[in-house]
Automatic annotation (TrEMBL):
The keyword Metal-binding applies. The active site is located at the dimer interface. It is found in: Cytoplasm. This is 4-hydroxythreonine-4-phosphate dehydrogenase. Homodimer. Catalyzes the NAD(P)-dependent oxidation of 4-(phosphooxy)-L-threonine (HTP) into 2-amino-3-oxo-4-(phosphooxy)butyric acid which spontaneously decarboxylates to form 3-amino-2-oxopropyl phosphate (AHAP). Signal peptide: none annotated.
Length: 325
C-alpha cells in the first residue's frame, strides 16, 4: 500500500516551505498532498533554485514529480524570517483541513512542518501547539512523543508555564498518558511488552519526600496501580541519570514530567533525525522536531533530515495501521 499523506509546510516566513520543496525532489514510498499556499512554496523554490511542480486534484500533472496541492492561501506574503500575524488563521486552517482529510479517510496520515506559536497568538488565535489543536479537533487525549534512533521521550505536560507544571501532575493525567504511550508502543511500534521509564518531577525523584512530594503522593501510587494491570513501568526515576546509555537500553520510552526535562536530551542526542509523533490520534501524525528557524529561512541552509524522517515515519505508521485494520 502506498499511503497518501497530507503535508503541511507550517509558518510561511520560516523554513517549512523550503523543506517541503526539498521533499518534492525526493522519492518517498508515499503520495504527498500539500496543504498550503502555492505562492509561498514557489517563492521558496526560487530562493533555493530548485524546481517545483504542483497540481490541483483533477488537473493533469506537468511533471512526474508534481505534487498535489490543496490550496490554502495566506493573505500576506510575509518576508523570510518575519512571521506575519495576519497569516495566523490560514496557518491554522491548513492544519485543520489536513486533519479533516485524515478523519474523512482522504489521507492516511499527516506530516507537519514548524509553526510559530507566538505569531498565531499575536494573530488573535489562542494556540499552544499543533498537537493540542489536533487533539481538540479529533476530541481525543493525545500524548506528544519525540523519537530518534537513540531515545523516545513522551511528555506528561507540554506547552505550559513551568509554574503550572506541578499542579498538572495528577493521578488522572498520569494514568491517561501512560495508557496512551503503552498502547501506542504496542500498536504502532510493534513492541509486545513495552517498558516505560517514568521520571520524577523533583531533584533526585524527591529524595524520599525531602525535596518534594509529587513522587510519593501521585507518581508512585499511579505506577503501582497500572503495574497491577500489567503495564511494565519503571520509576519514578531521578531525571539526571535516567538517560545514561546503560539504563536507557532497558527502556522502550521515557515519560518526562515536563517539556524541558526530556526534550533537551533527545534533541542533543540527534536533533537532525528526530521526529515528533502524536500518540492517541485516530490517524498517524508526525512532525519535525525543530522550529521555524527564522534565522535560516530562505537561505537554503536548513537541514531537511527531520522532515524526511517524519515523512518516512508517517508512511510506515500508515501502512502498519492499514495492514492491522
Ligand atoms: N514542530 C513545530 O511546529 C515546532 C517545534 C519546535 C519549535 N517550534 C516553534 O518554532 C519557533 C522558533 O523556535 P526556536 O527558535 O526555539 O527553535 P528552532 O528549532 O526554530 O531553532 C533553534 C536553533 O536550531 C536551528 N535549526 C532549527 N531547525 C533547523 C534545521 N532544520 N536545520 C538547521 N538548523 C536548524 C535554528 O537555526 C536555531 O539556531 C517557536 O515559535 C517555537 O514554538 C515549532
Ligand atoms: N514541543 C515540540 C518541540 O519542541 O519540538 C514542539 O514545540 C512542537 O509541538 P506541536 O507539534 O504541538 O506544535
Amino acid at each position: 500500500m502506498r499511503p497518501r499523506l497530507a503535508l503541511v509546510p507550517g509558518e510561511p516566513a520560516g523554513i517549512g516551505p523550503e523543506l517541503v520543496v526539498r521533499a518534492a525532489q525526493q522519492d518517498f514510498d508515499a503520495d504527498l498532498v500539500i496543504h498550503g499556499d502555492a505562492a509561498a512554496l514557489h517563492r521558496a523554490a526560487a530562493a533555493l533554485s530548485l524546481p517545483l511542480h504542483l497540481h490541483r486534484a483533477g488537473e493533469t500533472p506537468a511533471s512526474p514529480r508534481s505534487l498535489e496541492l490543496v490550496e490554502i492561501p495566506h493573505p500576506d506574503q510575509a518576508a523570510f524570517g518575519i512571521p506575519e500575524p495576519a497569516n495566523a488563521a490560514s496557518v491554522v486552517a491548513a492544519l485543520t483541513r489536513a486533519a479533516q482529510a485524515c478523519l474523512d479517510g482522504d489521507c492516511d496520515g499527516m506530516v507537519t512542518g514548524p509553526v510559530h506559536k507566538a505569531a498565531i497568538n499575536q494573530g488573535g488565535i489562542a494556540f499552544t501547539g499543533t498537537t493540542g489543536l489536533l487533539a481538540a479537533h479529533a476530541r481525543r487525549e493525545v500524548v506528544m512523543m519525540l523519537a530518534n534512533g537513540i531515545v523516545r521521550v513522551a511528555l506528561l505536560t507540554v506547552h505550559m508555564p513551568l509554574r503550572a507544571v506541578a499542579d498538572a501532575i495528577t493521578p488522572d493525567a498520569l494514568d491517561g498518558a501512560l495508557r496512551i504511550v503503552d498502547a501506542a508502543l504496542r500498536r504502532d511500534f510493534g513492541i509486545a511488552e513495552p517498558v516505560v521509564a517514568v521520571l520524577g518531577l523533583n531533584p533526585h525523584a524527591g529524595e524520599d519526600g525531602h525535596l518534594g512530594r509529587e513522587e510519593i503522593e501521585v507518581i508512585e501510587p499511579t505506577l503501582q496501580r497500572l503495574r497491577g494491570e500489567g503495564l511494565r513501568l519503571v520509576g519514578p526515576l531521578p531525571a539526571d541519570t535516567a538517560f545514561l546509555p546503560g539504563k536507557l537500553r532497558g527502556f522502550d520510552a521515557v515519560l518526562a514530567m515536563y517539556h524541558d526535562q526530556g526534550l533537551p536530551v533527545l534533541k542533543y542526542s540527534d536533533f537532525a533525525n528526530a521526529v515528533n509523533i502524536s500518540l492517541g490520534l485516530p490517524y498517524p501524525r508526525v512532525a519535525v522536531d525543530h522550529g521555524t528557524a527564522l534565522d535560516l529561512a530562505g537561505k537554503g541552509l536548513a537541514d531537511p533530515s527531520s522532515l524526511f524522517a517524519a515523512i518516512r515515519t508517517c508512511a510506515r505508521l500508515a501502512r502498519q495501521r492499514r495492514s492491522a485494520a
